[in-house]
Amino acid sequence: MLHCCHYPCGYLNYSPLLNRTLHYPIKMEHLQQSFTVQYNYNVFFTSALFSPENELLNSFLVNLNPAVTIKKILFVIDEGVANTHPNLNNQLKAYFSKYAQTQLIQDILVIPGGELVKNDTKYFDQVLEAINVHGIDRHSFVAAIGGGAVLDMVGYAATVAHRGIKHIRIPSTVLSQNDSGVGVKNGINYFNKKNFLGTFSSPVAVFNDELFLKTLSDRDWRSGIAEAIKVALIKDVEFFEWLEANAAALAARDMAAMNYQIWKCAKLHMEHIRSADPFENGSARPLDFGHWSAHKLEYLTNFEIRHGEAVAMGIALDTVYSNLSGRISAEDAQRVIALIQVLGFELTHPLLQVTEGNSPILQGLEEFREHLGGELTITLLTALGSGEEVHEIDTEILKKAAGILNNQALFIQQ
Question: Residue 347: which region, alpha, beta or left (left: phi > 0; alpha: psi -120 to 50)?
């Protein structure tokens, strides 16, 4: 019993407690926690998303957490999109003037597109500052309109601010509508390494608007199709055959063909994310088929080579390697090479040539190993539509594969 007989009034004597001997178990039992978090998001396909007659976006915003009465939305726009759609800001303001249930932040942020926005952290800081200044909270939205690099960076900023603000992706390129825009990865480049900083977090929604594709250059229109070739080769031989049959139409900018290609590619990517290892806790990354050399080539060329262009070359390299290592037939390998060519891609680049043991491109293997967490895991083809994981690459076979592609490219140029 506590008392204060030996102390001035107002003080308690704790000495009886301090003098007691407390007995603990000799062996402490450990505590274990386990829980599951469910992720849900939709990918919508539409045209003229910000037309006042198109209620899709407003309906989504209003119906997500309807009990929340005050919602804000901050838009971050790729500079390339802003330049090719000069009336976009006015369209946004008119749309949210009509659908006023969500408060539009009038200060719309425009930032550069491409890898520059992931290489320089000042753009990341700009997004965080806008989130802070405009009071964007966890019930509000950060919406990014742009190519994959802008979506990656803005998604990263959104998921670290307040430990996670709802972010919406509105991909503006074939590449981002096909692939990066529908996935769960966000990030920026750091230490001259692609996506060294990043998070796994899904958007609350993706809106693919075909109108953004109509203003793309031929180069950017074509670039994203490389990801369709990739996912078809490792997941779906029927889709690969569809690409073969429709390659000329895709190259000629047929919108109906492109819309199906984007829908199918997005579907295959999302099915993989759902059924496999979405946060990449293991070392296997089959959706990175053709990417180990592509990532390095992008850096070596200071990103003069587009991501999709580098991926097409990486697919060609790994396909020929798959043939030379006895995994697929020469006939199947040639079908892949022919598809790449019909779509208008280059097959190789001088920096992909393996001339000696310290060729620059070989550094990409070690960096890929590090990015995966230690063990090199690369997908090679075992057939059109399926692949297998390997943990070693034979430098001599790689050298021969690169040489074959170089000779074939030289022959075509002549």
Answer: alpha
List the one residue out of 137, 128, 7, 5 whose CA is nearest residue 65: 137
Beta-carbon neighbour count of residue 141 at 10 Å? 23
State the DSSP code for 22. Answer: P
pTM, full prediction: 0.84
Question: Is there a contact between 408 and 347 (Cβ–Cβ < 8 Å)?
Answer: yes
Cα dist. 50→83, 110, 135, 141, 315 in Å? 17, 17, 24, 16, 37
- Could you tell me the two tokens for 213? 């594709």
Alpha-carbon dihedral sign for residues 184, 188, 191, 193: positive
pLDDT tens digit sequence for 31-60: 899 988 888 889 999 999 999 999 999 999
- List of residues 6+ apart from 191 with CB closer than 8 A: none
Q: Kindly report the CA angle at 350 between 326 and 296, in degrees rounded to 5?
A: 75
Show the tokens assigned to 398.
Answer: 């790689």
Cα 107-111-114 angle, rounded to 5 deg: 155
* First-to-last C-alpha distance (Å) of the chain: 100
Q: What token pair was written down for 369?
A: 């190993």
